[in-house]
Amino acid sequence: MSTPLPTDPSAAVPGGRRRRARPRRWPGTVVAVGLVVSGLALLAALVGPLFLPDATQQDVLLGVSQPSAAHPLGTDDLGRDVLQMVAVGARSSVLGALLIAAGSLLLGHLIGLPAGYRGGWVDQVAMRWTDLMFSLPALLVAIVVTGVVGGGYLLAVLTLVVLFSPGDTRVVRAAVLEQRQRPYVEAARLSNLRDRTIALRYVWPNIAPVVTGNAFLNFGFALVALSSLSFLGLGIAPGSADWGRMLADNRSLLLSNTWAVVTPGLAIILTAAAVNVVGDWLHRRLDERGLRR
Amino acid sequence: MATAWLRFLLGRLAGTAVVLLVLSFGIYCLVYLAPGSVEHTLLGNRPATEETRAAIRAQYHLDDPLLVQYWNWLAGALHGDLGTSIRSGEPVDVAISSRATLTLQLSTLGTLFALLLGIPAGIAAALRRGRAADQGIVVLSVAGLSAPPFAVGLLLLGLLAVKLGWFPVYGAGDGGLDRWWHLVLPATALAIGGAGLLVRFTRTSLVRELDQDYVVFARARGLGGVRVLRYALRNCAVPILTATGLVLTSILVGSVLVEVVFALPGLGSLLVDSVTFKDVPVVQGVALLLTILIALVNLAVDAAYAAADPRVSLVRRKR
């Protein structure tokens, strides 16, 4: 589901001919901001519900209200504090995306490692599978699957794992293919090591950087995809604290308390952007390191 | 040459046909296996006798085995009959064509906005490489690329339509100019992500081209900045076309969500309504139409490569 991004050629041309500005600064500041924002989101996801156990407590008599001293960002139509809801909602949004990135990484390894290492019919089958998956509109398939089966958070996560995995499969396979021709693999073969040992203990550490960088990018796209499903009411149950779900539930409050819509919207956009900035930087760094080896 | 072209086209058609078969069969299996039944959704909580249920099941052939149901649908679809909607009772092709126009208008406008926003910004960034303007554009493009269109749509709706009242809040307008006016905000929401992608592709490829010898040479010969830029841009056509294809497909899919945000009666809202209703014929129709559209976009992009760059030949390329 992740889009292939062109890498920056200015990084590839050592000391390019054109006047070169000072060493590029933007990785510094922007990546730092990205790290802080993603860290905050992760922190909220991990400990938010522990500190705010009453976040989803309703106060129906209060109902929707504008920001006040007691509720810095106001309340939604059930009288729930918007700020607390967003903090707690990080759990399902961010952890779900993490699960998807990790699951798809695992599935990508399960298919991509043998495909790249063995080649032959295993590779053929794996590649036809990824071809097929790539020609399907992923989000559309996710909507149909979760919608027809009747929704559910776990189902949404599992569906997205399957839909994200072809990208990981290709990345793992390509990296393994590239490593397989290296002399160290030949040496390991000659010393009569088992294929599994070579693949896992010697090849894998060499492809790990590239693969992790890609997983980080997946994390950003998974966050968006999962919140899209929640927004359509296909992921998490109605009324839950979840960014996508809050956007859907609070849509009608645009006039009465705009913050109830703006805050979860900004949370999704900022987190996804921060994660992508960090992932992009990581991808580039690790890719270069992988090449230097 | 002509036969090779034909072979390329046939290969593509066969590939798309396989994808459509897999997708439609997958949807049938899913509906067949999913918990809850069509007659339950149709009847809701109304009390119903056993006969009513049986009649409904008979009407939609729900008691046939999976393969028979699928075969009947496939045979119909191949003859141009996509069946009737379970939810509304209208023929699927009528339901789809009455809504497809809106989705196509929305996607076209969104792509247009993305191109008008993304390519100039990408060129500007490449020309000011490494400076503050470039860094600002790159950061904005990453943010745009990451932002889901439905969230952007809601923010735009809150700010420009509700707070400032510049744009209509809901609906599709009364046709003509009013329709396009209603589509401006949703199209903008869709365009943001596409523009981010176009900025990246344009900037990266233009930076690479501006480093080439022919640019240095042209400059040394005293050619002006605009003419040099024109030469360089000509060589960026392929990456930009690639990005445009990606943008078009992502906008087609993204329109599903944006239509829900802006309450637009297009294909997307039809799909979302039908999916939860287990209205198989409509879900099949919409999913297949969108998949065909995406395949067509990809085909058009490949054909455009050959037109834009004489070094690219579709027929000799090993696929």
Structural summary, described in words:
The complex is a heterodimer of chains A (293) and B (319). Chain A is an all-alpha fold and 293 residues long. Chain A contains 10 helices and no strands. In chain A, helix 5 (138-149) packs antiparallel against helix 6 (153-180), helix 8 runs parallel beside helix 9 (243-249) and helix 9 (243-249) runs antiparallel to helix 10. Chain A is elongated, with a radius of gyration of 22 Å. Chain A starts with 8 loop residues before the first helix and ends with a helix. The model of chain A is unreliable at 1-23 (pLDDT under 50). Chain B is mainly alpha-helical. Chain B has a domain at 100-308: MetI-like (MetI-like fold). Helix content of chain B is 76%, strand content 0%. Chain B has 13 helices and no strands. Chain B has helices spanning 2-33, 38-43, 50-59, 66-78, 92-127, 132-146, 149-163, 177-210, 213-220, 225-234, 237-261, 267-276, 280-308. In chain B, helix 5 runs parallel beside helix 13, helix 6 packs across helix 8 (177-210) and helix 7 (149-163) packs across helix 8 (177-210). The longest helix of chain B has 36 residues, at 92-127. Chain B starts with a helix and ends in an 11-residue tail after the last helix. At the A-B interface, helix 5, helix 8 and helix 10 of A face helix 1, helix 6, helix 7, helix 8 and helix 11 of B.
Overall structural domain count of chain A: 1
CATH topology of chain A: MetI-like fold
Task: Name the CATH architecture of chain A.
Answer: Orthogonal Bundle
Query: If interface size is counted as residues with C-beta under 8 Å from the partner's C-beta, which chains form the largest one?
Result: A-B, 59 and 65 residues
Return the string of H and E elements of chain A.
HHHHHHHHHH
Keywords (chain A): Membrane, Transmembrane, Transmembrane helix, Transport
Region (Disordered) (chain A): 1-22
Family (chain A): Belongs to the binding-protein-dependent transport system permease family.
Protein name (chain A): ABC transporter permease
